[in-house]
């Protein structure tokens, strides 16, 4: 899905510098009219650019020749993806001089000179990924910036994510379907990444481009957020929002942000709610090729409320009913809370993390898979997502235990153990 309104002020961003220290051009500048002023009564918070100056020595600076060699001259066969910024290649780089070791497999993103994103986002990404450090954010290994006679070259070198993006697994039927547990773990990891950006850094970072294609997956399917080109600093003390040009991706951006340009961390929370529904339903937030009534996911899901009997109908058929219905209802309710109209009433990302942790824990011990639950679906408790009574569950488990296949035996044993202790 493509970005919108990227680079309203693109002409201003063309510069000749080759290092990412563009003092007057970063997204982290406080140059916009309603940008919060610094608080006079507390210690002045540092800006990302200042923190970057202190920490960025961790980043490796590559020559263009090194990256050309790493990708066999940007060979088409090594291309692993393409977005608004440009193409992404798989490559192999040598360890740093004096560091013995195997060559390192990396992902190299090369700025497309005619792309709708560009140099300014490249700078933002280098500055931001140069200072953050969290298991759910992709690691930037280094960058390359050359301003030659033939124009500018901007590249980013990341750790290689073997399982590409969540988008590749949820929507691309060429890949095996993701299991329910894996979907929950991925969304929990992504929520932790956002909570870190919003709540755990010296300054708040608003990500602004949360979507399935920006959630990368490593060899163990751990989620890592990527693409920080649109991110920016949140409001400082005494201010509720940052005023900014509206950028992001259609189908994911919060309506209040689109209407007013007022950006808060709750804009990311909205986008998180959208992706939660994508993960539940296996449908994209916007699918123009479907009948009109089904094109917009958020309008569609309103017809299947989390508490209703028909809720299960919109669940992704690729799950083959192998999920806990009550857990799915709780996730849908969490998504609904992220998608409330009033931004301030949406949960914070750390609250989202807490809810998802409970759902993950509960789905290990709570409900049997949906395919064994059809006969208890009439229960009013089940309809509103409340746990069914222990006695009822025990008799239900006894009934289904005869039918368990190999895949579900482990889950069943875990449930039994949980009831015994
Ligand atoms: N570090 C990485 N490791 C492995 N694959 C990657 C990595 N970074 C990106 N990719 C692959 O390249 C694809 C394109 O990524 P990119 O971020 O350029 O575009 P996008 O997210 O699809 O779109 P947009 O430009 O609108 O954000 C990703 O969906 C993913 O499959
Ligand atoms: Mg991306």
From TrEMBL:
A GO molecular-function annotation: ATP binding
Keywords of the record: ATP-binding, Kinase, Nucleotide-binding, Serine/threonine-protein kinase, Transferase
InterPro entries: Kinase-like_dom_sf (IPR011009), Plant_Ser_Thr_Prot_Kinase (IPR050823), Prot_kinase_dom (IPR000719), Protein_kinase_ATP_BS (IPR017441), Ser/Thr_kinase_AS (IPR008271)
E.C. designation(s): 2.7.11.1
SUPFAM superfamilies assigned: Protein kinase-like (PK-like)
Disordered, as annotated region: 1-43
Name of protein: non-specific serine/threonine protein kinase
Organism: Perilla frutescens var. hirtella
């Amino acid at each position: 899905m493509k970005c919108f309104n990227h680079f309203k002020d693109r002409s201003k961003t063309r510069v000749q510098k080759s290092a990412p220290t563009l003092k007057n051009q970063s997204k982290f500048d406080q140059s916009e009219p309603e940008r919060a002023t610094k608080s006079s009564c507390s210690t002045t918070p540092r800006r990302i650019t200042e923190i970057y100056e202190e920490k960025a020595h961790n980043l490796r600076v590559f020559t263009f020749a090194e990256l050309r060699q790493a990708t066999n001259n940007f060979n088409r066969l090594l291309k692993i993806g393409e977005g608004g910024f440009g193409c992404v290649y798989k490559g192999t780089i040598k360890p740093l001089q004096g560091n013995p070791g195997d060559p390192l497999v990396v992902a190299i993103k090369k700025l497309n000179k005619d792309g709708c994103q560009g140099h300014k986002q490249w700078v933002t990404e280098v500055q931001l990924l140069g200072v953050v450090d969290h298991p759910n954010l992709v690691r930037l290994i280094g960058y390359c910036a050359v301003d030659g006679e033939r124009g500018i070259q901007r590249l980013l070198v990341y750790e290689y994510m073997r399982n590409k993006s969540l988008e590749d697994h949820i929507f691309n039927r060429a890949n095996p379907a993701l299991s329910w547990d894996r979907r929950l773990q991925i969304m929990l990891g992504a929520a932790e990444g956002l909570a870190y950006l919003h709540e755990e850094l010296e300054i708040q970072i608003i990500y602004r481009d949360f979507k399935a294609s920006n959630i990368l997956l490593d060899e163990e399917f751990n989620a890592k957020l990527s693409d920080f080109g649109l991110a920016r600093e949140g409001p400082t003390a005494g201010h509720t929002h940052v005023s900014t040009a509206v950028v992001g991706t259609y189908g994911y951006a919060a309506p209040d942000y689109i209407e007013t340009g007022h950006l808060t961390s709750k804009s990311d929370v909205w986008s998180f709610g959208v992706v939660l529904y994508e993960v539940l339903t296996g449908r994209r937030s916007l699918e123009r090729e479907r009948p009109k009534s089904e094109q917009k996911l958020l309008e569609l899901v309103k017809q299947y409320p989390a508490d209703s009997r028909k809720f299960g109908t919109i669940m992704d058929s690729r799950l083959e009913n192998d999920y806990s219905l009550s857990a799915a209802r709780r996730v849908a309710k969490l998504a609904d809370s992220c998608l409330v109209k009033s931004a301030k009433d949406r949960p914070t990302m750390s609250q989202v993390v807490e809810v998802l942790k409970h759902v993950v824990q509960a789905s290990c011990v709570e409900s049997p898979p949906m395919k064994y639950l059809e006969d208890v679906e009439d229960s009013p408790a089940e309809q509103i997502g409340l746990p069914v009574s222990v006695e009822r569950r025990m008799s239900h488990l006894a009934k289904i235990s005869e039918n368990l296949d190999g895949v579900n035996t482990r889950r069943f044993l875990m449930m039994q153990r949980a009831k015994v202790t």
